[in-house]
Amino acid sequence: MKLTKKQFKQDFEKRLSTKFAIDIEKAGPQEKLAALSSVVKAYYSKIWQEDNEYKYESKKKQAYYFSVEFLPGKMLKSNLLNLGILDTVREGLADLGIELDSIARLEPDMAIGNGGLGRLASCFMDSAASTGIPLNGNGIRYSYGLFKQKIVDGYQVELPDAWLSNGNPWEVRRSDKAFEVTFGGEVWLEDDGTGKLRPKYRNQERVLAVPYDTPMVGFENTTVNNMCLWKSEVPKDLDLQFQNLDYMRQTAMLSAELYPDNSNYDGRLLRLKQEYFFVSAGLQRLIKHYVSTIQRPITHLADYVSVHINDTHPALCVPELMRILIDEYDIAWERAWNITVKVMSYTNHTILSEALEKWPEEMVKSLLPRIYQIILEIDRRRTAELLPKVGAKLVHSTRIIKDGQVHMANLSIIGSHSTNGVAKLHSDLLKDVELHDFYLIYPERFNNKTNGIADRRWSQIANERLSTVLDETVGKAWRHNLNELKLLEAHKNDTNTLERLQAAKFDDKLRLADYIKENNGITVDPNAIFDVQVKRLHAYKRQLLNVLHILKLYFDIKDQPDIDVYPRVFIFGAKAAPGYHYAKSIIKAINEIANMINNDPDVGNKLKVVFIANYNVSKAEIIIPAANVGEQISLASKEASGTSNMKFMLNGALTIGTLDGANIEIFEAAGKGNFFKFGLDKDEVYEYYRNGNYNARDIYEQNPVVHRILDAFVDGTIPNISAEGPEIFESLTTYNDEYFVLRDFNDYVRAQKDLETLYKDRTAWTKASLMNIANVGKFSSDRTIKEYADAIWHVEEKK
Ligand code: F55
Fold first, then answer.
1. ipTM of this complex > 0.95?
2. Per residue in 738-767, pLDDT tens?
3. Domain count, the chain
4. Spacing, Cα 350 to ligand 1 middle (Å)
5. What is the pLDDT of residue 534?
6. Hey, which of 117, 632, 634, 645 would you mutate to test ligand 1's pocket, going by the most ligand atoms within 8 Å of its Cβ?
7. Which of 350, 537, 580, when mutated, tests ligand 1's pocket best, judged by the most ligand atoms within 8 Å of its CB?
8. Consecutive H or E run containing 16
9. Which domain, by its residues, includes 258?
10. What is the pLDDT of residue 425?
11. Residue 274 to residue 695: CA distance in whole angstroms
């Protein structure tokens, strides 16, 4: 949009006065933030309205992204950037004596997601708007987002995240578009007099779902999409006396809290309730919209609407759409089923079996009696149809209802026309191993969509210094099309470019060093290698492998005080699920090891370890630009894709990583020599599984370095871990090291040495860093979302 500095200043001052009856001199920071956000909202509202009108009139097909999590982070700068007014506003504010960043910092992170899956959903929302793809988000407006993490005595402590306490300037509550969602009670089928069976209900619990729309502003275009988040309320007509307080409380609880979990399924009733809540509300809204504005017969739904099931959490989309078509629109089963399968598509985000969602049949039956009937019928018909075609074995292994449980992945695959993994390796494993039986039955449904990142946030917003260097080197086209960074390759021998890349990195490291000084009280040398591992804490991600290597370096320094090691700062950020005991023990161990090393005078600046508390999107925006090295060290086959790996690459960090998830594609893109690869590959891992011949204790006993490091966990070397040390020690020795940490240790150490050697040659390192940036184009989520739009949803970009 067009905006002059003068106009902006007028708008801003006026808004302060109309909103708060105050002038700039007297306004506090929160008032400035609120006024600024409100001005920005006014700027995009017109575009939003016009785009809505365009969508109504053109009647083009739209996609709906159903996700129980979104993780947008802060919105202010992203909205300013996308509106094309970031610089104007920054300068205007500066004229008024206000620093934009000091205000922007105050916005709470919108953290209604756990990790990669939620963040991916938000990258997709950003990229869809920016590429003109009509994509509507659909989720839950949790009053409390993911817990805030504090570190007390080295332990993780969880605090509530009341992100809405100062209001949310971006959302629009649409009470007129509320829908009811019902739970429990009894359902039976009755002849309606025409021979047709209709469901009758008794004693149902009713909940009102109220939508809050949050605009997703496209980058310098005319698209503004919508992310609809549902809040649960008590229906207005309910006569609520004090006896019903409990009911009120329960209703409010529905959208109160995000379940803090990652890669671990946790079968709590309230969670199943949440899943049905936003699925039912979202589908009701889209059907109503379809009927009233598209005004085509319901049987043509699949020509106008595509619904995406992001992981299995929204899998109830399948039976709920069936319910609406059959019970509310009188469509015959077969026809309803064909429509449903055409409309639905599904993404799988994990192969970890403990993460696969299954619900006890009894739970589904009592909470969602009609949905349960429909699932039973889907399962019954499919079984009858396929038995003669594929045989009992395949039918059984792929059944939705098995062993008294409803298998949500099975429901999602069977009820949709597309199942995709999130990186090549992951999609291959789904086809060849984890979902092989489904692949045999429905080969045409399987496909890959390698993840991507909303590159503008991770460069233009998070790393302005690097962005300026890139502009000056290859022009500005990369800001619209990340593939343009390929032009950088022509500059890889250009000393001036390399020096400017180094200078930008140094500035970003200074910024992080300041943050660390202020928040951790640790002084770190910005000339040291900044080696970063930031992601949720999980055994399969192997933060522990990183820790063992740190201990190796520590003992090397202790043994040989004059040893020539390049100074390193190891930086961690990780939340553990509150109930994941082992992960919390690792956090404690990292913090105690950090204390031990950082305060050891023998170590000095050679080695520092920093645990940054409360890792979230806005922390990532400070940490990742400052990284020299990104740690992507999961056991091969376990990390479906990873997305921080792409953010590091974009910011010129080199990856040390296994051949897992999207690392493989990053390695191919960056080129040999620009990526430190180590460890078992997926075939070797599977070979161990087949033979059952992995023996971690042998490694402990035969490798003196490993032996000494592991002993440090139990012999008092590392202080204050008398409970956690033995637990970790035993997980590796007695319990045979589930994720092959010890098996990959030596090769990891070797790769770390290679990395250090390259870093000592500053020119060679910076060249490798440049090669990473130059080849990151593929990992823009603009590319990913276009692939979804073309190949799965069949929706067109706005021209
Ligand atoms: C959240 C809740 C439950 Cl119950 C289960 C899983 C999660 C979750 O957050 N999963 C998650 O983040 N998965 C990650 O998805 C990313 C995006 O596709 C992948 O890059 C990453 O490999 C995968 O672990």
1. yes
2. 999 999 999 999 999 999 999 999 999 999
3. 2
4. 7
5. 99
6. 117
7. 350
8. helix 5-20
9. 59-74+109-451+784-793
10. 98
11. 43
Q: Which atom belonging to ligand 1 lies closest to the Cα atom of 120?
A: 17
Calculate the alpha carbon distances from 678 to 225, 657, 667, 746 in Å: 42, 6, 11, 9
Per-residue pLDDT at 317 exceeds 90: yes
Active-site entry in 77, 308, 479, 536: 536
Q: Note the pLDDT of residue 239.
A: 64
Give the ligand 1 atom nearest the CA of 422: 18
Are residues 788 and 757 part of one domain?
no
Tens of pLDDT, residue by residue over 252-277, are: 789 999 999 887 888 899 999 999 99
Whether 515 is in a domain gets the answer yes
Same domain, 535 and 570: yes
Q: Are 714 and 654 part of one and the same domain?
A: yes
Helix, strand or coil, per DSSP, at residue 593 = helix
CA of 310 to the centre of ligand 1 (A): 10
Query: 302-336 b/e with 16+ CB inside 10 Å = b?
Result: bebbbbbbbbbbbbbbbbbbbbbbbeeeebeeeeb
| 88 domain residue, yes or no | no
| Catalytic residue check, 753 | no
Cα separation, 1 vs 7, whole angstroms: 13
Q: Is residue 556 part of a domain?
A: yes
CATH code at 684? 3.40.50.2000
Q: Which is more confidently placed, 248 or 397? A: 397
Q: Do residues 415 and 557 share a domain? A: no
- Say whether both 321 and 215 belong to one domain: yes
Spatial neighbors of 223 by CB under 8 A, at least 6 apart, are 51, 129, 130, 132, 133, 134, 798
User: Residue 400 falls within a domain, yes or no?
Assistant: yes
Secondary structure (DSSP) of 697-755? HHHHHH-HHHHHHHHTTTSSSSTT-TTHHHHHHHHHTTT--TT-HHHHHHHHHHHHHHH
pLDDT at 242: 57
Please check whether residues 259 and 274 belong to one and the same domain: yes
Residues 155 and 211 in one domain: yes
Q: Which atom of ligand 1 is nearest to the CA of 426?
A: 22
Q: How many CB atoms lie within 10 A of CB 570?
A: 26
Please compute the mean of the pLDDT values over residues 179-198 and round it to a whole number: 94
At 761 the pLDDT is 98
- CB contact at 8 A, 448 and 437: no
Q: Tell me the pLDDT tens digit for each residue of 507-536.
A: 999 999 999 999 999 999 999 999 999 999
Please report which confidence band the pLDDT of residue 302 belongs to, taking 50, 70 and 90 as the band edges: very high
Question: From the alpha carbon of 536, which atom of ligand 1 is closest?
Answer: 12
- Are 587 and 682 within one domain? yes
Closest-CA residue to 111 (of 77, 80, 75): 75
Q: Which of 68, 123, 266, 349 to mutate to test the pocket of ligand 1 (most atoms within 8 A of CB)?
A: 349
